[in-house]
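We were asked to recover a plausible sequence for a given structure. The inputs and outputs are reproduced exactly as logged, with field labels preserved.

PROBLEM: sequence recovery
POSITIONS: 252
GIVEN STRUCTURE:
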């Protein structure tokens, strides 16, 4: 594992938590960042059980001072952060004409502004020390295909993918790689909430499975494996890539 210390946002559950556990098992110390400090405790315990060190930081990724403080704490404890995984995200399922400005701003604030703030702080600190590093940002199939009732989410995830390409090109001369993982539907609490909000949740779930040519939805551990690859030495020549982990969804 190239990255000795990895900061993971949205680490309290889903893909973020799965990524933290897998990276710990592969030898990385983990900085766990999420708004839900209590939920981070179980993830922290899993990291410790894997023999790695964990630093828990309750922080809102939309707050630039909180993001900067999380990195400062990480440097104080570990003297470095080599890898960054931006997994923090939120979504709504609302028709465009019913989407309020507050809902729009809330989704974009977490999904794209939060990603920007963490990437900016990460890059600033690496550039100051001259160390290389790797970023993996979580986009989505919603970043490349249009889905009903997901105007804000689709816009935010498309922006994450484009921001990541820009970072990859701008920071490549400084030894900083930036890549994207774009999952299809994954068995997480966020997906469960989305399905529960549908008029017919059972039918929505059936349709979701059918939309993925592989015949099922993904598991958080599978996405974590893709993230770990992009952070690692085997991906040393990979930057600006968008790894679709969607069971064939975007190939139809």
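RECOVERED SEQUENCE:
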């Amino acid at each position: 594992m190239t990255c000795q210390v990895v900061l993971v946002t949205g680490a309290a559950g889903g893909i973020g938590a799965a990524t933290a556990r897998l990276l710990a098992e592969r030898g990385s110390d983990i900085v766990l960042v999420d708004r839900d400090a209590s939920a981070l405790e179980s993830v922290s315990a899993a990291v410790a059980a894997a023999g790695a060190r964990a630093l828990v930081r309750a922080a809102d990724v939309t707050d630039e001072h909180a993001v900067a403080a999380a990195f400062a704490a990480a440097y104080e404890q570990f003297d470095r952060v080599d890898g960054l995984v931006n997994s923090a995200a939120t979504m709504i399922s609302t028709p465009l004409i019913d989407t309020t400005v507050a809902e729009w701003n809330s989704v974009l604030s977490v999904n794209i502004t939060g990603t920007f703030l963490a990437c900016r702080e990460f890059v600033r600190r690496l550039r100051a020390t001259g160390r290389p590093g790797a970023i993996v940002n979580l986009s989505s199939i919603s970043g490349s295909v249009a889905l009903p009732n997901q105007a804000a989410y689709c816009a935010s995830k498309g922006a994450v993918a484009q921001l990541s390409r820009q970072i990859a090109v701008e920071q490549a001369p400084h030894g900083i790689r930036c890549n994207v993982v774009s999952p299809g539907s994954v068995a997480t609490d966020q997906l469960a909430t989305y399905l529960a909000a549908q008029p017919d949740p059972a039918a929505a779930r059936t349709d979701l499975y059918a939309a993925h040519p592989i015949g099922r939805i993904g598991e958080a551990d599978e996405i974590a494996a893709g993230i770990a690859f992009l952070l690692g030495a085997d991906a040393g020549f990979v930057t600006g890539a968008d790894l679709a982990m969607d069971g064939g969804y975007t190939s139809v």
